[in-house]
TrEMBL record, chains A, B:
PANTHER family: MARR FAMILY REGULATORY PROTEIN (PTHR33164:SF99), TRANSCRIPTIONAL REGULATOR, MARR FAMILY (PTHR33164). Residues 147-169 are annotated as: Disordered. Pfam families: MarR_2. SUPFAM superfamilies: Winged helix' DNA-binding domain (SSF46785). Coiled coil: none annotated. Residues 1-146 form the HTH marR-type domain. This is MarR family transcriptional regulator. One of its GO terms (biological process) is response to stress. GO terms for molecular function: DNA-binding transcription factor activity.
DNA sequence: GCGCAGTGGTTCAAGTTTTAAACAATACCT
DNA sequence: AGGTATTGTTTAAAACTTGAACCACTGCGC
């Protein structure tokens, strides 16, 4: 099978995507690091917990929601626990399980930091998009998410003959 | 000034964006790690160089193109040099400067790996988007990029009263 | 020409994060 | 019971990032 290269339009969109996501991730991380002393992922953990019933979630559910490995989550929660923003409890119904619980201190941190974070997201993104574009963004990102999750990793391997095209960043 | 929280639609779009970018970055990194033994950023360096006149670029220009710090680039190029895919040369016109140069070996690696990478991007993204959506994606990402680059980091600070809303991940 | 601010790029030290593999404990199924 | 699958942690190693300090050079004003 010959390689299905990106068209010129796709190429442009892709480059644009790479720039935007890279810049945005950096901007958010920097801001959050300054305001809350933690990177975006850690903030997301607190945020998810704050919305969960009883401010607590099973580790696996949390990892699932954030699309990260359990190992990574364990590490992150360990740090948050040291910070005092998250606690750990055994799960009553499944003794293997553990719940991460947002502490009052964690909630307070979130309340203090959230406005700044929202402002970052707003000034970097939503202030400049029309309502239609917001809908388009959700639609496109949802499509990407589903495509990846329905596992569809593209056929591996297949060393193909080179035909001078862009290598898609 | 009171916090301008995200609307429900913005909230959904944002969550969707977070999931998609996180999953996509992971998928690309995993694939590239398997095929080329390097993460996406490093591949991007090779790719950019392959498109540059004479397969070479000034370090600063490369850092600029990839939106990363010079320090980070120095580290990355050092590794690529160790791998043999990139070389370093002094800049003829400015003796402070250095050029990163794609070696034949680097080019060969790129040629070997590009099809798999393009396939990843395609199956995760472009295979599922309409041409209109490709245009929308470019437009939206371009807007975000410009918003961030025109510095506009949102007013820092401002501890605001909490009104139970989502903390935007 | 000289001094000096600015640029290009690297180095260094420190810390953070990530990964993969192995592991213990428990649940579930038959 | 017994085997398998989950849950979540641990461990050790490696990879990466950061920020500050730093050197070499340029280019400008005087």
């Amino acid at each position: 099978m010959t390689t299905r290269w990106l068209s010129a339009e796709e190429q442009r969109a892709w480059r644009s995507y790479i720039s935007a996501t890279s810049l945005l991730a950096d901007a958010i991380d920097r801001r959050l690091q300054a305001e809350a002393g933690m990177p975006h992922l850690y903030y997301s953990i607190l945020s998810r917990l704050s919305e969960a019933p009883d401010r607590r979630l099973r580790m696996t559910d949390l990892a699932e929601a954030l699309k990260i490995t359990r190992s990574r989550l364990t590490y992150a929660v360990a740090r948050l626990e040291k910070d005092g923003t998250v606690g750990r409890e055994g799960c009553p119904t499944d003794r293997r399980g553990h719940m991460a619980v947002l502490t009052d201190e964690g909630m307070a941190l979130l309340e203090r930091v959230a406005p700044a974070h929202v402002e970052t997201v707003r000034t970097a993104v939503f202030d400049h998009l029309t309502p239609e574009q917001v809908g388009q963004l959700e639609e496109i990102c949802g499509t990407i998410t589903r495509a990846i999750q329905s596992g569809d990793p593209g056929t591996p391997g297949e060393d193909l003959p080179w035909r001078r095209r862009s290598c898609s960043s």
